[in-house]
Amino acid sequence: MTKNFLEMVEILGAQAGEAPPEWFRLLPLGEVRAVNRPSFSVDRAALERLVAAFRERGNDLVIDYEHQTMTGEQAPAAGWIKDLEVRDDGLWAKVEWTAKAREYLQNREYRYFSPVMQMNKETGAPLALYHVGLTNFPAINDLPALVAKMGGGDDPKAAQQDRAKKYGIGVKDGGHVTKPGEWAQVPDAQFADPVNYRYPMPDHDQCQAAWSYWNHPKNQEQYTPEERGSIEKRIRARAKAVGMTITQGTQAGTPAPQEARAMKNRLLGVLALKAEATDDEIFAALQAKLALAGALPEICQVLALKADATVGEVIGAIKGLKDGQDRLQTVETKLASLTAVSVERDSQEAVEAALKAGKAVPAEKEYLLKEARADVAAFKARMEARPVIGPPLSELPKQPGPEKGAALDAGELAVCKQLGLDPNNFKATRDQMAGAQ
Predict the structure, then answer these.
(1) What is the pTM of this model?
(2) Are residues 219 and 350 in the same domain?
(3) SS3 sequence, 157-192?
(4) Which of 91, 120, 154 is the last residue of a domain?
(5) Bigger pLDDT: 7 or 428?
């Protein structure tokens, strides 16, 4: 069937009064190539946001001519979008056309459309749909015409039911109602399941992929024995047409289903995954293993190991580092306690010296202790410069330190709180130093 013949069929269909579609696909899923602007990607989540925003607003969206709505002048409507629906292949719009727009479309005076949307400046994803314009110069590449190529206004779901009757394959959950965007130009005859548009086979490589996927038992669960036989027959016929050899029920070079299952079980064991792990989870785990293997020489260098060190040696070296870090933390904690005890002892001695020299009076002892604990050296310097304010108390008995095992006093507890020390560690260190004197 030549291209000219297909164009002739399209023209004759329009001349016969082919009606504009009630539903048409407004945006495909996947990459969308645009004219004179960067391409952008559309995922299901973005389309669902567009539908939610449309329904929250509660107004029909206008379809005008050549985006006249944006000029602020008269902008007669060509139609009104009454509903939006996310389907397997993109965003579909239900439209109520005006009489003039129907005439334009049937006469092929207008053939395409162009949506006006707010886009995310960083990701390029669509955020909101403002309106749609009929145009003969659409901003999106590879856009199907509204009339003829869109099926003359037939409901896609009804068309799927017609295909089910024709090919003897039922409509399946998760199947495609219309052709996925990347396979939009593949004829029905080149799908192993043309009812649900699964397993496209336009060339040798895709036919090979279709046969491989079809041989996964999970992919055949939805089909009856009769449907399975029909699909296998279609793949074999297409394989012959594209020069692909199928032997012993399996494509040459592809593992048989039981071999594939055994290989998958081995992978699950090696990767420590559960039996119900999906192919994507297995692939992700493999990628992580490979990434670690690629980084192993650099890890060995950091750990001062040989480049060919085993995984066990690497793990041992890492554990050694962790143990050393734990020991260092213990030493640092002990040192902090010793330092705090030493500061407390020096502060007590400095205040006692000031009292004995007559440069301080007992009434200000607690205040002076607080000052000395903050900076013993600065306190001593200030006391050195301080004049005598009373008779020297040279015979003042030395204040006894806390007995070994005695509870911490208020000052010592305050020191622990200020420095973030464990009171038990502080007490143990203090008692140890008191026993050594």
Answers:
(1) 0.35
(2) no
(3) HHHHHHHHHHHCCCCCCCCCCCCCHHHCCCCHHHEE
(4) 154
(5) 428
